[in-house]
Amino acid sequence: MPIYDVAIVGGGNLGLWTAYRLARRGFGRVAVLEQGWSGGGATSRSAGVVRQQGGSETAAKLGKLARELYLELGEELGLDSGFVETGYYIVAETEEEKEGFLRLVEVRRDAGVENEWVEPEEGKKRFPDLDWDRFVGATYSPTDGYVSPQIAARNATCAVFSSSDSVDLFEMCEVSRIEERGGRYSLETVRGTFEAERVVDAGGPRGAREVGAMVGVEVPVMAVRHQIVTFPTIAEGAAHPFPLFFLVGKGYYARPEEQGALLGMSNASDEADLSERYQIDFDWGYYEKTRPDWESAYPPLKGLPISRAWAASIDYTPDHLPIIDEPMEGFYVLAAGGHGMMWGPALGEKMAGLISEGALSGVPKEDVELARFSREKDTGKAEDMIALPFPKK
Question: Which end of the chain has the lower number of beta carbons within 10 A, N or C?
């Protein structure tokens, strides 16, 4: 078996995009070691939301770059990118939310994202099916949308194989041990032992922490339940496709899905899920509890039959931002902070740059380095308020 320049542990959206962007740079031989199949973990179970309206400059820049890269890859492959541009409203229910959202409009514009504030009266004209009487306004980006998770996984896998002969993808290849030996890393797997000069921990919600622990690096990535349901249609007469909308305070969002709709939700009371499974229990009690609220906010969903429902694990970090870092020589950590589909291509590009050029570009190092979690919290720095309600620990 050859000695690889880079071994990437995890063949989800982050790992695949890192491999692809390294291949684009012509950076040596790369092995992707995936315990299941390519894109088969959190990637294919996600809702695929692609949002540039982040809660910080770093989040906005990553969202913008990810959207561009999804589209670029589709053109390169001659396949559909899977990205659908619908526009996206992030609605404010209180004056306090409105105040914070208005500040973020300028932050996003400074990051190059087209963004505006929409008052309720204007919202009624643009998106009349949403009950604007409940809200004090919304931020809006016309170029936000979603990507089909299945197409995203397909395209990233195709990119790995088509970009060059320098990337080898190994499925059903769970890593059980990593050791540093003589200036390089030895990775024991069910398919044999791999040798690499560098290792990237892209293990996602069910692997990032464990892979880091193999070399003594603490990676504060945990998994929590996220629930998704789809409806085969929406109410007759309602506009379709419709723009995405997100009620941050309630932890739910909706987007078009084929001829119907997809609704995603997270429960602020849920704790970290330690089951180590991607497929986890669906909380029907919480679904029924929140149902009156989202049926009120968007009446076209009221009383509809469900076509699919699932619960899966989503990763999170303490501050909702990603990790892009080299905490020890030759060992890199890449984590999405709950936004693997939203930021995946951008995170892969940034990690590839860090590996090949030896430095991070385009985002502040202090926002993404692992060491930030061991520093005293900066009370003067605003937290990213545009995120699902993840556990506090």
Answer: C
